[in-house]
Amino acid sequence: MNEPLRLGIAGLGTVGVGIVRIVQKHADLLEKRSGRPIVISAVSARSRTKNRDVDLSGYAWEDDPVQLAQRNDIDVFVEVMGGHEGPAKDATEAAIKSGKDVVTANKALLAIHGQDLAERAEDAGRLIRFEAAVAGGIPVVKALTEGLAGNEITRVMGVMNGSCNYILTRMEDAGLSYEAVFDEANQLGYLEADPELDVGGIDAGHKLALLSSIAFGTQVDFDAVELEGIGSITIEDIHQAADMGFKIKLLGVAQLTGRGLEQRMSPCLVPDTSPLGQLQGGTNMVVLEGDAVSQIVLRGPGAGEGPTASAVMGDVMDVARGLRFSTFGQPAKTLRKARAARAAVPAPYYLRLQLLDKPGALAKVAHALGEAGISIDRMRQYGHDDTAAPVLIVTHKTTRTALDEALVDFQSTGVVSGTPVAIRIEAV
Ligand code: NAP
Ligand code: HSE
Fold it and tell me: Where are the beta strands (DSSP E) in 291-397?
């Protein structure tokens, strides 16, 4: 019999338990496919006594994930604890130092420390694989690293946070406010322990930064992602967008232009008939464009026990089969440090603002837009009350820089109350 591949799993939450279940349920199938048994030697979590509804009796226990990472009876350290500092980082470094390959689902860790960890792993001749870190069960890292390796990638785009997509689609379906659906999602356990990671666009930004690195051969640069969350989207925006034939999605777009690497994760209006527009609930979708392949679209569950453990096991199987790749698809030391560029591709924008009911108010707003070089495509005033009137404007194509200029000017008109909502309309 061939030597088994021995796993040490740090973290027995949603993903960790899912991995244990697959290893136990599919032992024969995994062995047939990889040519060697896949076994779990040891596990770690905070609480040894918690009932996890899975049989852990055959595995050694470590309270400390760093100790687990250093054990002599494991070949692969599987990190599914989460967090970009503390035990996840310490144990990953310890695993590499003690000669273990690493499989992780931790996008935060790699988005912040990916370059350093990849260099450490490659210097030590070890692997870091992270399929589960991006878009859950969708094999997008594999698609970029392997299937599309012959392409110059021109754009990466997608909906990569299931919780935000759940909130936005549920608001529309049930006609509920952002606050009501946020509370509902939190109670259902759909949101991260720190919900801002989801609704602030941070989690999705981490994922986009990882895909950018593989796609464009650049060092992971999460700090350069232009981030905007979904917290300011109201049910009114969703209704108005629907009226015009659009859906609102938290959309990530990355592309390398002559000006540098553009990475943005922000709410966008997309046509409701487009594949992205039709994406419901927690489903993710990633669109990859390359010079040879043109465009491919990957769609599937972006989170949850089964899908995420499925992605982890895909990486484990690669290790078992002896497939060895650089973490980001090319040696980490050859990844370029990209110049960060603000997204400059012009697009139409949806604007919603509250105008004070004063003579000439609309004209002042139109003037501010004109001064910034922005042309109005459509404008509508609706739901007027005694003091204020909501106004909806769709602009012709403009840049975010010009729009920001106009938004600053709005404040000096004396007729705009509150903060206007500005959402890019993306052609997808
Ligand atoms: P989770 O349910 O919160 O589980 C985290 C696990 O880590 C728990 O078992 C916890 O122990 C353990 N842990 C935390 N700190 C520890 C420490 N200091 N020492 C030892 N164990 C520790 O998290 P999860 O949802 O499985 O997510 C795990 C990772 O996968 C994260 O990086 C997450 O971003 C990523 N991910 C998750 C999903 C998903 O759908 N859940 C999807 C894609 C990626 P106790 O159980 O004893 O508290
Ligand atoms: N919070 C993440 C999401 C989990 O909602 O997509 C998967 O990474």
Answer: 294-301, 349-356, 376-381, 388-395
Mutate to test the pocket of ligand 1, among 78, 80, 166 (most ligand atoms within 8 A of CB): 80
Amino acid at 357: D
Most informative mutation of 131, 161, 284 for ligand 2 (most atoms within 8 A of CB): 161
- 155-198: pLDDT as tens digits: 999 999 999 999 999 999 999 999 999 999 999 888 988 999 99
Q: What is the pLDDT of residues 354-379, one digit of tens each?
A: 998 888 889 999 999 999 999 999 99
Nearest ligand, CA 136: 1
Structure-derived torsion over alpha carbons of residues 185, 188, 193, 194, reported in degrees to the nearest 10: 10
Ligand nearest to the CA of 67: 1
User: Tokens 């608001």 map to which residue?
Assistant: 171
Rounded Cα distance, 136 and 212, in Å: 17
Q: How far is the CA of 15 from the centre of ligand 1 (A)?
A: 7
In total, the chain counts a number of residues equal to 428
Q: CA-CA distance, 197 to 161, in Å (whole number)?
A: 10
pLDDT per residue as tens digits for the range 56-102? 999 999 999 999 999 999 999 999 999 999 999 999 999 999 999 99
Residue with tokens 């990638």: 153
Residues with CB under 6 A from ligand 2: 136, 161-163, 192, 198, 203, 302-303
Give the position, in ligand 2's atom list, of the atom nearest the Cα of 166: 5
**Paired tokens of 287:** 């669109």
Q: Do residues 387 and 415 lie in contact, with contact meaning Cβ atoms separated by under 8 Å? A: no
Quote the CA–CA distance of 339 and 257 in Å, as a whole number. 10
**Strand pairing partners for 287?**
157, 297
Token representation of residue 283? 């489903």
Active site residues: 207
Q: What secondary structure letter does DSSP report for 41?
A: E
Q: What is the pLDDT of residues 16-68, one digit of tens each?
A: 999 999 999 999 999 999 999 999 999 999 999 999 999 999 999 999 999 99
Cα(175) to ligand 1 centroid in Å equals: 33
201 has pLDDT over 80: yes
pTM for the model stands at 0.95
Compute, in angstroms, the gap from residue 198 CA to the centroid of ligand 2: 7
Cα angle: 71, vertex 74, 78; to 5 degrees:
105
Consecutive H or E run containing 38? strand 38-44
Cα separation, 11 vs 14, in Å, equals 9
